[in-house]
Amino acid sequence: MRDLKRVLILGGTGDAAKLAAIASQLDGVEVISSLAGRTQQPTAPIGSVRVGGFGGEAGLVAYLQEYQVSYLIDATHPFAAQISWNAVAAATKASIPHLMLVRPAWQKESGDCWLEVDRLEAAVTLLENQTGRIFLTIGRQQLAPFARLQHLWFLMRSIDPPDASLPIPQGEMLYDRGPFILEQERKLLTDYNINLIVSKNSGGNATYAKVIAAREMGISIVMVNRPAMPPVTQVSTIDDAIDWLKNVL
Question: Which fold, 114-224?
Answer without folding.
Answer: Rossmann fold (3.40.50)
